[in-house]
Every structure is written in C-alpha cells, then in structure tokens.
Design brief:
By secondary structure, this protein is of the alpha/beta class. The protein has a domain at 6-78: Signal recognition particle alu RNA binding heterodimer, srp9/1 (2-Layer Sandwich), CATH 3.30.720. It contains four helices and five strands; from the N terminus they run βαβββαβαα. The termini are far apart.
Amino acid sequence: MPSAATIDHNTLARLVEAKAVHGTHIVARPGGWGVIVRYGSAESSLAATRSKETRVFKRLETLVGYLKDVGISRFDVDAADFDSAAARTYSRPDTSATLKQAHAALAHDRWFRDQVGQALKEADDPSTQWVSNEAAMAEGAKRRAAWRSRSASAVTKGKGSPA
C-alpha cells in the first residue's frame, strides 16, 4: 500500500548515489504504474515534479528506463491492480495532421533554399546577362498591351467577356 509521503526525482537520485535505497517497488495504479522507494526506516512514493502528486507512468517500459537511468536496476513489481483496458495508450488524432504540416513545411524550406541557391549561383555567373529595370518594365507594358488587344478582339468577335 503506497504511503502518503512523497519524494521528488532529485531526492531519489541523491538517495541512490548515497546507496541508501533498500528496496524499490513498482505498483500498478489506475492509469499506469507508480514507484515506492524504501530508504532507512522510511517508505515514500515518487512524486511528479510540478504537482507533487504521486507520479504515474503510463508504460512500464518507460518506468523501467527511468529507474535504470537513476541507478536502480532491481525492483519488485506488484501488478495486482493492473487493468489492461485502463492502461491503453491514448491516441492523438491531431498528431498526424501536425506531422504532415511539419513535413510539408520542411519540404518547402528545402525547395526554397534550393531556389535561392540556384539564383545566387546564376547571379554570380559572369556569363549572366542582366536586364535593366526600364527594359523589363517596357517589355511588361508591351506584353500587357498585346494581351489587352487579344482580349478586346475576342470580345468583339463574340467569344466572351473580358475578365
């Protein structure tokens, strides 16, 4: 039965470093797994950092990895209250859409950088022929006039209205 006393991660790490931990128990709880640590004559549950509530790990593998990282490799497991239906992982349907957006953004970023790199290479090429702004504006005006005249002639021939 878990005790009301709790310890945080830093305290647990210091107790392990001082070799003061005498026993570690993993206990099934609603929604996952908890840890009870015995040290000296005390017994405490591992607490979550922010809430100071007893920490619950959703997956046993995650808890085992955590304990090994702290330096605890031997422990007892009490699965009496384990409920496989309650222990199912929760899916997040928005994760798929978020990942697709992230991948699309990454692909666009790569494409954009390739385009900029190609443009810089062309700009640095000594054989590149430059067009002045005045010449580009004159060419644009000439093309717009040609489009207008084609559009106007299509309207007068009854092929539609200008858009």
